[in-house]
Design goal:
Blueprint (H helix, E strand, L loop, with lengths): L1 H31 L8 E5 L5 H10 L6 H10 L9 E5 L5 H10 L5 E4 L6 H10 L3 E2 L10 H5 L15 E4 L3 E2 H21 L10 H14 L6 H14 L6 H6 L10 H5 L22 H8 L8 E4 L5 E4 L2 H11 L14
Parallel strand pairs: 4-6
Antiparallel strand pairs: 1-2, 3-5, 7-8
């Protein structure tokens, strides 16, 4: 009788071990079997959604056979309190184990938005509103009250204060949060440019450097000319000459205006650098890193003038006479009798 009992006990132990082995293999297989997907999908983990709810959703979608397997694994691994809300990419070949760990690490789908160099803050706001994955900004937020919405009222005017770049973010991100990052990036690069400026620079503050950089950004898109364009403006500022640059006047016009009339050139206002010396009161665009650096460390030349060649490049001159000849050649087709435009 005793031998029979021992045999039964041994059998039960073997069966228990076998069951435990089978459960372990089944458990691991569910976690490591690629989910049934024909194409990539997105999974939205809502704020406050817990491990049990996530596990049930996985089971409902056929990604695991049993919700309890994923839930038990998640609790054993300490994943439950680390789940991060957001949008996650689920791709063919991905396993439940990989996805649940991605959620614990917060590896949300990254969307992007680019602010090109030379954009205005109005254009940046429009792009933020049009992006389908961003929240806001509210229609009530515009150029006039943007700084208040960002808690940056001390800056005075928002133009120029946001660095052109490509910004990545998760779905449902507040648009103003993207602008905050762009502003922090601009602060960083503006401070670096200010610290790196030439010793005898005519601008008196980082904000004036920002204004100058925005003008340089709008005057040329050619990297090989940017420093030289900056040199012309710095040379003029040192001599007390008017900058006489069209982009500042265009900034004061209605959006979309590309050409200036004689009347607009003559009309005096703070952005008319033909009638007023010095810099305009605010930046006229969002300057990029290269424009900031060019403004801080311009080319050392004697140039005081430049004129477009019509192919995207410019001709630079040291004297007004040289400049006038270049204008006749590149702007008036060589017909000096029609010369009637202002000098730079």
């Amino acid at each position: 009788m005793k031998r029979i009992s021992l045999a039964v006990l041994a059998l039960l132990v073997v069966l228990a071990l076998g069951a435990a082995w089978w459960l372990s293999e089944h458990y691991q297989a569910q976690l490591d079997t690629p989910m049934a997907l024909d194409a990539s999908e997105r999974f939205q983990l809502e704020p406050g959604q817990g491990l049990r709810s996530v596990s049930r959703t996985f089971a409902e979608r056929g990604w695991v056979d049993s919700a309890w397997v994923l839930e038990a694994y998640g609790r054993r691994q300490g994943i439950a309190p680390r789940l991060q809300a957001g949008e996650y990419a689920v791709t063919p070949g991905m396993t439940p184990r990989e996805l649940i760990h991605a959620m614990a690490r917060g590896e949300v789908v990254q969307h992007r938005l680019t602010f090109p160099e030379g954009w205005t803050i109005r254009q940046a706001l429009a792009a933020l509103r049009e992006h389908p994955e961003l929240i806001g900004p509210a229609e009530s937020v515009g150029v006039d009250n943007l700084l208040e919405a960002l808690g940056l009222e001390d800056l005075g005017h928002p133009e120029g204060w946001f660095l052109p770049d490509t910004y990545f973010f998760g779905s449902g991100t507040e648009a103003l949060a993207v602008l905050q990052r762009a502003h922090q990036a601009m602060r960083l690069h503006l401070d670096r440019a200010w610290e790196d400026r030439i010793e005898d620079h005519p601008v008196k503050s980082p904000y004036e450097l920002l204004i100058l950089a925005s003008i340089i950004e709008r005057e040329t898109g050619r990297g090989d000319e940017r420093d030289r364009v900056a040199g012309v403006f710095v040379n003029r500022l040192k001599r007390g000459m008017r900058l006489q640059t069209d982009p500042t006047l265009l900034y004061a016009q209605e959006p979309g205006v590309q050409r200036l009339t004689r009347a607009e050139l003559d009309r005096d206002h703070p952005y008319n650098t033909y009638t007023r010396a010095g810099l305009p009161p605010t930046p006229i665009a969002l300057p990029g890193r290269a424009a900031l650096q060019a403004a801080a460390r311009p080319a050392e030349t004697n140039d005081l003038f430049f004129v477009s060649r019509g192919d995207g490049s410019h001709h630079f001159s040291e004297t007004y006479r040289e400049h006038r000849e270049a204008v006749i050649r590149y702007q008036l087709g060589g017909d000096g009798s029609r010369y009637g435009i202002r000098n730079r």
